[in-house]
Amino acid sequence: MMRKKILFTFMIFLTFIFLTGCAFFSEKITYYTVRFYANETLIKTESVRSGYYATYPEAPEVRGYTFKGWDVEPVPVLSSLQIHALYEINHYTITYVNDGNPVDNPTSYTVLDEFVLNNPTKDGIAFLGWFLDGQKVEKIEKGTIGDLTLIALFDIQSTDVFQDKTALENEYQDLLSGIVERLDPLPVIGINKQSKITWQSDSTAVSVDPDSGAVTITKGDFENEVVLYAIVEKDNFVELCKFRFTIPANS
User: Fold this and answer.
1) Is residue 220 classed as helix, strand or coil in its secondary structure?
2) Would you say 240 and 219 are in contact if contact means Cβ atoms under 8 Å apart?
3) Could you tell me the pTM of the whole model?
């Protein structure tokens, strides 16, 4: 009798183990959908097991903006999610080179801005325009990015300035053309003592000492095309001399 009772108890125990084991192994695994958006565009969809982490994608670049992170930090996923990339708009500076009367133009802008440039005047001398990298600019277009240096040019009526510009081109044309390995210090003072030459470049590879006028090249890992400007000034007249050359990469 005792043996039957023990056997019966053992059978009940095995049945309990069997039933609970089946329930354990048949437990449903839940997955959730995680969607990633950048600038309102879906860039990735991922199915993530409950309690696990989603794999965040690389956020795409957005012109004129800087990526700042995601609006949901990485956490165990317990429900379906929509995660959005966060961007901050960039602010760029505008530097004006102008020896005429000051004008009220914006000194900063964003990729969303658009405005027409106001023109300076100079004692009845005709204004030729604002120039950026040798190209005339009348307005800042929406979608423009980067720091800008705009040069105001006026009509040239001085033969001396033109002669100084020609002499400058003759002296440096061979050096500032083709592949340039190095630059000797270039002068701040021009060909004659009555004229002034100011060297400028918007390239980060070129720096100009404001006191000595020495031009320094910094080579990078890649070949770099550079535009160097010589602004020739005499009295109230200004003329632009433009040199274009290539700086080789570090060897």
Assistant:
1) coil
2) no
3) 0.56
**CATH number for region 31-89:** 2.60.40.4270
Rounded-to-integer distance, Cα 200 and Cα 192, Å: 20
Query: Both tokens of residue 83?
Result: 């995660």
Q: What is the pLDDT of residue 25?
A: 47
Task: Decide if 249 contacts 181 (C-beta within 8 A).
Answer: no
Q: Read off the tokens for 136.
A: 């005339």
Q: How far is CA 68 from the centre of its chain?
A: 15
Vertex 32, ends 26 and 38: CA angle to 5°?
165
CB 164 within 8 A of CB 192: yes
What is the spatial distance between Cα 249 and Cα 234, in angstroms, rounded to a whole number? 37
Q: Cα–Cα distance between 222 and 228 in angstroms, integer?
A: 18
- The CATH code of domain 157-251 reads 2.60.40.10
What architecture is the 91-155 domain classified under in CATH? Sandwich (2.60)
Q: Which residue positions in the chain have pLDDT lower than 70?
A: 1-27, 134, 156-158, 188-194, 235-237, 251
**Residues 104-126: tens digit of each pLDDT:** 999 999 999 999 999 998 877 78
Domain boundaries of the chain, sorted by first residue: 31-89, 91-155, 157-251
